[in-house]
Structures are given as C-alpha cells and as structure tokens.
Write a structure and sequence with these properties.
The protein is mainly α and 183 residues long. It is 80% helix and 0% strand. It starts with a helix and ends with a helix. Mean pLDDT is 87; it is low at 1-9 and 16-21.
Length: 183
C-alpha cells in the first residue's frame, strides 16, 4: 500500500506548480543574514552536486541540466558573496554536512541507478531553495538581499521546471519495474 502512495504523492507534488503565494498580513520578517548564510551553503552545495552530475549522469537531459545548474548557481554564489561582503555578512567557506553527505551518497550510487537518485536529490534541493528565496523575497527586510532573491528565483524555478519531467520519467520507470516484478 505505501509503495503506491509514494509515487502518487510524488506525482501530485510534481504536478503542482510553484505558487507565487502572497505573505499573510501578519507575516514575520525573515532574518536576512541567516538567509544569506543558508543561500550560500545551499548554493555551494548545488554547484558541487551539479558538477558530480556532469561527471556521472548518463541521461543527456540530466547532463544538460547539470551544466546549466552549475553555471547558474556559480554566478548566483558570486553575486551573493559580493553583496554579503558589502553588508558585512560572513558566509560559509566550505560545504555543509548536508551537501557533503549528498555528494558522498550519490558518489557511491551504482551506475544504473545514479541518474534517478541524482534527479530526485536535485529536485529536493531546488524545492528547498525556492522556499528560502521566496521567503526572503517576500519577507526580507534588507532591500538588496530581497532584490537578489527576487532576481534568482526565476532561475531556480527554471531548474525545478527542468527537473520535474526528468524525475517523473524515472519514477514511471520504477513503477513499471515494480509492476512487472509483482506479476
């Protein structure tokens, strides 16, 4: 039963467009420095994970995505670093534990399952990034960081849009495989 619910939940998530939700009237501002630090950690991780995808992915769409994501996130990281330096916000200098674990986990993935696992990892990373950047864009106090988040959001959402059909392709293959083994 739960094997059927996971694909259904994933399909519902992937079919749902990313909402441009307005913040509630009584919304609490986000901490701009924490956003900058979280975005920097996530961005560094995204570049590293995407570089791994460039090396290991076999699916041409995933390779194309990996190249675009690595370049886009490297540029976003540079813009964030320059702004944070101007504002006196210290950013992390190395990958966080979550990114390190993701890379280690994906690096050990067998060749025949890497693309599916990599696509799902990228989807999770980008869903989280959209949430963080939307929060800053909507509820940040610093106008420069808000503007940076607003500028970056279309690119991050584009990455998410590129990933959804790729993840669904692998999810559908997995379902077909489990249907055949159940017979």
């Amino acid at each position: 039963m739960s094997r059927l619910l996971l694909p259904a939940a994933l399909a519902a998530l992937l079919a749902t467009p990313t909402a441009e939700a307005l913040p509630p009237a009584d919304s609490t501002p986000v901490n701009d420095a924490l956003f900058a630090q979280a975005a920097a950690a996530s961005g560094m991780g995204e570049v590293a994970v995407s570089e791994l995808g460039q090396k290991k992915a076999e699916d041409s769409k995933l390779k194309e995505f990996s190249e675009k994501a690595a370049a886009d996130h490297a540029k976003m990281n540079q813009e964030l670093a320059a702004l944070a330096a101007k504002k006196g916000i210290a950013l992390p200098a190395q990958l966080d534990a979550r990114s390190q674990f993701c890379i280690q986990s994906l690096s050990g993935e067998p060749k025949d399952s890497f693309d599916a696992c990599y696509a799902k990892a990228q989807l999770a990373i980008h869903i989280e990034a959209v949430g963080a950047f939307e929060a800053e864009a909507q509820r940040g106090r610093d106008p420069d960081l808000k503007a940076l988040a607003e500028k970056a959001l279309p690119k991050i959402k584009e990455h998410l849009h590129m990933l959804k059909p790729i993840v669904m392709k692998y999810e559908n293959k997995r379902e077909e495989g489990s249907d055949k083994s159940a017979k």
